[in-house]
Amino acid sequence: MFTEAIEAILQDQFTPAAIRAIEAGADPATAWNALADAGFLELLAAEDAGGAGLSLSDLFPIFVAIGHHAVPVPLAQSIAARALLARTGTAAPAGMITLAQSCRPEPDGTLVCAYTPFGAIADFTLAGTADGLLLLDCRAAERIGTGVHGSQSATLRWLPGHIATPLPGATSADVQAWGAALHAALIAGAAARVGAMTLQYCQDRSQFGKSIGKYQAIQHQLAVMTEHIAAATVAAELAFGTNGTQPQRLTAALAKARSSEAAQLVAASAHGLHGAIGVTEEYDLQLLTRRLHDWRTAHGSEACWSVQVGEALLASEAGTVEFVRKATRMEEQSGAW
């Protein structure tokens, strides 16, 4: 029910033209207010607190839909941030909240959150430290864009007087697990749409008197792309299969490692099969493939998370098969995980 309802709003508010406009600097307030007024920011909050009381497994298809529509506002991040803030007993502020993927104090007391997803437009950033969460007002920060076309990520810098006191109840590990899990789901949604667009193009495009999709070499590339999309989707779903409102670190690591690996391969295959039209500004494919590359590195790429999965395996007393069996059954791991 919730997925269908939010799909309707996303389809209405975030057309390709609207996405391009917001990326170019248009005010996203109208679209954002439509989501906020419908109550979609509190999907994980308990019903007696005015929320929908959804489980993480219920939330997964909604995050996939957000990726499918290339939503240019931090909707998934805001939902996660509100769940994290609830654990600290802090009311979430009105507006767009994003999750910082890093938080670094400098010698002069300046706080830096580098390459923050949606840092260019977010109202607030939730950053994790070992002592708790920092809720930071982006309007008091210096925003430094990435310089990448259409990117809404930015490095944020706060002077000492604008840094809040950490909120106990959650830590940087919780923020990173959420960031990995939600971006895995976004990648799964965007990759599925890229795959559908590519398949349709191959069916419509004719060469030498027949559809290029009928050539065996093209079919092979489509099949490999489909395999990666399916693997990314299954891996992402693992991260949302736990109880409560916090993804487990190991399943989040597995999800992000596999989905990030798939992101670059799906994007490359899509552009290869589309040919020259795929890289043009007017064609919608680039709205999705740019995000696949952006989301691949957000909160750690496959290189980052694969190392952490490997370290967890080496620290485990179980053999490889048993480790994989437990991990894919989403059983909580001991130790640092």
What sort of overall outline do the alpha carbons produce when their principal axes are compared?
globular
Mean pLDDT: 93
Share of β-strand residues: 5-15%
Oligomer: single chain
Question: How are the strands of the largest sheet arranged?
Answer: 2-3-7-6
> What summary fits the major beta sheet?
4 strands, antiparallel
- N- and C-termini, Cα separation: 33 Å
Q: How many strand segments?
A: 9
The structure class reads alpha+beta
Helicity level, as a percent range?
40-55%
Instruction: Provide the CATH superfamily of the largest domain.
Output: Acyl-CoA dehydrogenase/oxidase, N-terminal domain
Return the CATH architecture of the largest domain.
Orthogonal Bundle
Q: Tell me the series of helices and strands, N- to C-terminal.
A: HHHHHEEEEEEEHEEHHHHH
- Poorly predicted ranges: 331-337
CATH class of the largest domain: Mainly Alpha
How many helical elements?
11
Total tally of structural domains: 2
CATH topology of the largest domain: Butyryl-Coa Dehydrogenase, subunit A, domain 1
